[in-house]
Amino acid sequence: MWFCWAKKFSTTCWGHKGFIAALDSQWGVANSTDTRELPLRIYSLVYLSLVTALIVLMLSSFGVGAITVYDTRLGAESVSRAIHSLPVFIIGSGLLVPVSLTLGELFAILWSIYLILFVMAMSGPSKNFVSVMKDLPRLGSEAAKGNSIFNVAGIFSALVVLITAIDFFQERAGIPTGSLPETDPIRMFVSLSYAPLVEEIGFRVTIVGLVALFLLKGRQVGWKSAYVLWSPAKYLKIILGEEQYKSAFKFLLISVVASAIFFGVAHELYGAGWKIGKISTASLAGLGLGWLYLEYGLPAAVLLHWSFNYFGSAFFFYSKAGGPTSLDPIIDFLLYSVGTLSLIGYGISVYQRAVSRST
Predict the structure, then answer these.
(1) DSSP letter string over 187-231?
(2) Who has the most CB within 10 Å: 97, 272, 277, 306?
């Protein structure tokens, strides 16, 4: 199950405020003593406990991936193979850049970057992982606001549930999704690990980020304008102010949707085994990636993409290299449980907002 999921749903073209924020204080979960709020408080505690377990597994995949590449027979056979060029994307268009690296060297660079981004996501942007865990019993879902990694895990799981459903109905309707072709396992793993960084720069930073830069046209902010490429919403609010940001938000939203559609179409255009059914699921993933980039910055978007590609492959390739496969059912359980609860929570939030507006 885990291999089929990881291989089929990886978001690579070649080869929320998140759902947690939806469970906000309007429910009164954090402060209310009304017994009618007890089910929501229990829901929040169960949900965030499952998310925490998923995050621990995501963190452990760093060690699993490193062992697979550097300390297994499969890795020993491939790690010294030379790489002479790498694809990069600019506004969604791909080109090859000459390099002189080995598979092992490229993986070490990527592994280090992702670990740094993971630590950054656990540390903020406004609340760190330890603070979330301390506040969890007292505040419920409110505790996770402002932490990137909790939002990454929540939206990742929700996307897995939605993509699974879409893929099921598309296949039944005769619309094939395709999958990445079989190749050298370590080469495929490194290729999947490379995609999140380069594709988020190519589809989010150079589309959504450039729109954010354009919104600063005429403002004398100098080199500080480059900050919006790192975290668009955060720095646009600082530079433009809340009111002007609200006026400019529609342009950012259009750019997020456009980048998502472009991302989906690119999967089919660039081939690599993907079929027309991949357009819809990759576009949906692109919406999540774009939203996280806009609201939480580049680290969150890269890590969501990393979750599909690296985390979604590390345990499979480790098992293929001779490691145990006993974690597969646990990972599946956590993904589909967290994803389902995320969607339920988001649905409740939308319903409550609609009710409040009508009264």
Answers:
(1) HHHHHHHHHHHHHHIIIIIIIIIHHHHHTTTT---GGGGGHHHH-
(2) 306
Q: CB neighbours of 314 closer than 8 A, spacing ≥ 6?
A: 61, 64, 65, 68, 189
Q: With CA atoms as reference, report the closest residue to 226 among 243, 239, 244.
A: 239
**Tens digit of pLDDT for each residue in 153-210?**
999 999 999 999 999 999 999 999 888 888 888 999 999 999 999 999 999 999 999 9
| Burial per residue of 218-248, b for 16 or more beta-carbon CB atoms within 10 angstroms, e otherwise | eeeeeeebebbbebbbbbbbebbeeeebeeb
Q: How do strand 82-90 and strand 93-102 relate by DSSP bridges?
A: antiparallel
Q: Are 21 and 274 in contact (CB under 8 A)?
A: no
Please, are residues 47 and 66 in contact by the beta-carbon 8 Å criterion? no
Cβ(111)–Cβ(62) under 8 Å? Answer: yes
Give the start-end residues of each E strand in the chain: 82-90, 93-102
What is the rounded distance in angstroms from the CA atom of residue 149 to the CA atom of residue 56?
11
CA 136 to chain CA centroid, Å, is 23
Q: Which of 209, 199, 157 is nearest to 286 (CA)?
A: 199
- Is the bond preceding 98 in cis, omega lying within 30 degrees of 0? no
Distance, in Å, from the CA atom of 216 to the CA atom of 219, rounded to the nearest integer, reads 6
Q: Is the pLDDT of residue 275 over 60?
A: yes
Domain boundaries in the chain? 2-358
Whole-angstrom distance, CA of residue 70 vs CA of residue 334? 28
User: Nearest CA to 4 among 154, 194, 171?
Assistant: 171
Q: What is the phi-psi region of residue 192: left when phi exceeds 0, alpha when psi lies from -120 to 50, beta otherwise?
A: alpha
DSSP-assigned letter for residue 358: H
Distance (Å, whole) CA 177 – CA 275:
5
DSSP for 126-159, please give it.
SS-HHHHHHHHHHHGGGGGTTBHHHHHHHHHHHH
Q: Which amino acid is at 355?
A: V
